[in-house]
Design a protein that fits this description.
This protein has 60 residues and is an alpha+beta fold. The chain has one domain. Strands 1-2-3 form a three-stranded antiparallel β-sheet. The protein starts with 6 loop residues before the first strand and ends with a helix. The mean pLDDT is 83.
């Protein structure tokens, strides 16, 4: 079964690092729900320089 909710990659800044997580919207003006944490952007870019672009494509 496929979900109708659109997934988003959210960035949150913790001190000097950016943390990425996958979220879905709860509706207009109701915020979002974090589904899974992906890790720090800096560490993901060490593995693959295009990590953020790849994640954005797969979140659609």
């Amino acid at each position: 079964m496929e979900s109708k909710a659109k997934l988003h990659i959210m960035k949150s800044k913790n001190k000097d690092k950016i943390y990425l997580s996958v979220c879905k919207t709860l509706g207009f003006g109701k915020g979002y729900k974090r589904i899974v944490g992906l890790g720090y952007l800096e560490e993901l870019e060490k593995l693959n320089p295009n990590a953020l672009d790849i994640l954005k494509q797969n979140a659609k």
